[in-house]
Amino acid sequence: MTHFCKYPWLAILVVTAALMQTAGAVPSATLFDNYEGSDSHGYGDVIGNTGNFEITSMDVYLSGNMLSVSILTTFAGKGDNHLFDSLTNGNGIGYGDLFLSSSWTPYGTAPYSADDTYTGTAWTYGFALDDRWMNENSAGTGTLYSLNSANYDNDINTNNNPDALLSDDFLTGGTFRNDQEVAVDVTDEKIQNGEISEIAGSSSWNIDVANSRVNFLIDLTGTDLLLGDEIALHWGFTCANDVIEGAYSVPEPNILALLGIGFLAISLRQFITRK
């Protein structure tokens, strides 16, 4: 049996290793839907039936390089129901892609009722779903892309990128929230021109109908999202009848290990002094 009192330096190594092991796990946070987003109809936070289109909150957790996002929404399980298929070329309303950035710069103040793709945050990464109309009994995959373009498609606003499809691109009529990013514009031309580039990694998503959640697990390896002190997020359905945005604060995880080392060093010094 090892006696740490006899070998205090060994205690430092053991505890430091434990602290470093847990340093990569950053506390989770819940972001509530305090974002409205602009629309020209005056419907407020949710356009249409809240039983279909309400987003309540987003749970975010970072463990090492893996970002876990769980969105509480009444839309969970509705993506294959062909909602409003007459307005969506027969596809219905689908699940949107998840947009990410290293800083959140919404336009105005909560509930950000004038914020849209032209005025708000320039999203620098997007997790594109393999099938946005996926059956709720399936688990899906997707690809994380770096959104590299400097200008919007029609050069209306140089603060936002052209790499997003908007809610307007998915509907041919009806009432919905306009000018919201809902999908990564993944085309061969954009990839070949370097406007978007794939970030290698193992990422996935799934639908938890029983708990009304849409879940994402995204590998952030190779991105600059791990270098800053916050991760901004944006998600909605293809109609954007409700959208959630916010920022997840990322504390410096290694400070826990450094504090632990310092504490043990002081303890060791006191032990040696007493000896």
Briefly summarize what is shown.
By secondary structure, the chain is an alpha+beta fold. It has 2 domains: 47 residues; 227 residues.
Give an overview of the whole structure.
The chain is an alpha+beta fold and 275 residues long. The protein folds into two domains: 1-24 and 253-275; 26-252. The protein is 17% helix and 29% strand. The protein is built from four helices and 13 strands. The strands form two sheets. Strands 1, 2, 3, 4, 5, 6, 9, 10, 11, 12 and 13 form an eleven-stranded antiparallel β-sheet that branches. Strand 2 and strand 3 form a beta hairpin. The radius of gyration is 22 Å and the shape is globular. The model is unreliable at 151-158 and 254-258 (pLDDT under 50).
CA distance, first residue to last residue? 22 Å
Largest sheet: 11 strands, antiparallel
Q: Overall 3D geometry?
A: globular
Rounded to an integer in angstroms, the radius of gyration calculated over CA atoms is 22 Å
- Share of helical residues: 10-25%
Give the structural class.
Answer: alpha+beta
* Residue share in β-strands: 25-35%
Query: How many DSSP H or I helices?
Result: 4
